[in-house]
Amino acid sequence: MQDSYINFDIKEELKKLPQKPGVYLMHGPKDEIIYVGKAVNLKNRVRQYFQSPQGKTAKILKMISLIRRFEYIVVDSELEALVLENNLIKENRPKYNTLLKDDKTYPYIRVSTDEEFPRITKTRKAKKDKARYFGPFTNETAVRECIDLLHKLFKIRTCNRNLPKDIGKERPCLYYHIGQCSAPCSGAISKEEYAKSIEHALDFLSGKYDYVKKYLTDKMEECSEKLDFERAIEYRELIKNIDAVTERQKVSALDNDDRDIIGIASDKSAAVAQVFFIRGGRLIGREHFYIDIDENDSEEDITESFLNRYYTGTPFIPKEIRIQCEIPQRELMEEWLSKAKNQKVRITVPKKGEKEKLVELAVKNAETVLKQDKEKLRREELRTIGAMNEIKEALGLYQLQRVESYDISNTNGFESVGSMVVFEDGKPKRNDYRKFKIKSVEGPNDYASMYEVLTRRFSHGLREMCEAGTNDATLSGSFVKFPDLIMMDGGKGQVNIALRVIEEMGLDIPVCGMVKDDSHRTRGLYFNNEEIPIDTRAEAFKLITRIQDETHRFAIEYHKSLRGKAQIHSVLDDIPGVGKVRRKALMRQFKDISSIKNASLEELMEIPEFDRRSAQSVVDFFKGEKSS
Length: 628
What we know:
Number of helices: 20
Strand content: 15-25%
Mean pLDDT: 80
CATH architecture of the largest domain: 2-Layer Sandwich
Structural class: alpha+beta
Shape: extended
Number of strands: 19
Largest sheet: 8 strands, mixed
């Protein structure tokens, strides 16, 4: 792919640009897409990037410095360019486009009205079929509770049986016997009566709670008159459940329309968008989204970019979207959204009254989230980057971003293993963790095992660099990135082993030991032949403890997995007449060695792969093992 831009002459390619609408893609040093944009006139828009830097933001100037080539796609209209731009951004997530930090999909409630005996289920995709969809909802737990309530209220089936084809073929399930299904599968309810239950469920989902409550109240009173108090209590509890659901609908509009209310708060580096979901005139939920921005992005730019990204990803578009400020391409965006919805969509900026207050409420909520998030990020920075800086200062290092920590685990020399754990900027970088099965050391020799692990790790890294012909630490090989500090799980002895390997490899990497006291608790660092105490209340101390615990955990888990595999192998492989197929069948049937040991001859013969002879062989083997 790299060859595609080595001979790319930007000046010559700019001359070939058409004066037509389209989308352009900027490619970076590794031929990755770093920016996607749209243009009414591709020739004019793309040329602007390579002209005078005057008026360009620092972010754009940085992006331009990385461009190695560009490509473009011609379309018929500005609307098509907008749609294509959104799709390409969502697919490629370019570094220099304004992006939502999280792509979320929200659940819908689906009523399969395309079936003769409909069901009510949860789905994350609203399709263009004959079913009825309600949502989206932001609270997944509430969706599940609502579906459960509808099943109890109206005894809607939950099975996947093909009805009416399968009516009468099987007995009713447990839900029928506990009174939560009307059992259309057995013919216990007619198609017409079942359709009435579905109609009540649709009314409920449409917000017609009063009608449903009246229906249930009538049923409750009818049962009371017949002295069927147990059933009457059931109806009373269902009415209480409805009251609990409807009580949550605190905010309502004057009409029954669907709309999204969007408020955005931002500072120099981040923004939060708060979305209120109003469906059928009721506020059914809210959600916030984090947005990466540039310090020079305006409120209008952030709002427009958010609308672009958000409504490209959501399956539901309301009839109205209320925002806090005018955006440059409002009419174009309305056209795009209307086309996607097959219905007129309006983007409005309320100036007064209740409409403006709702937008202000969304903005205030966004400001609160942003403020809380900044405080959370500040605390997180103290315990990660802040802690690394404290370690750096305590050891007198020039820089400290990447730390590698090592440990050895064995049981009396059995299956010795080594672990390499990596922390970057104070956080574990689990993709860079590595395991080592000790090859050259017999018995419990931690020093010799550590020597092997470190030698293999850095030899591998140097070899990858040589193969690439560079010592560039940004290469993507598994060992090519070297640490700023090696932390050994131990004191002077382990540190000296690491220093010996570093010297033999011709490297210059500082090494320290994480020293523990007599109670096996971390107490400080061993560095340059002296022990450096660390304040136990400091973030540095807490980070050292986390690194030490993580290194120890990773080594032990790997060792346990190897030990477990070896034990299974050594026991089952020694049973005469039991090969690979029968070993698998034994573990599939009994799950563990202990259960196999205690199995009777009859139980073993129930396994299809076993006959009397092979089953007797298993019994005799473990009987002999017990007697020995």
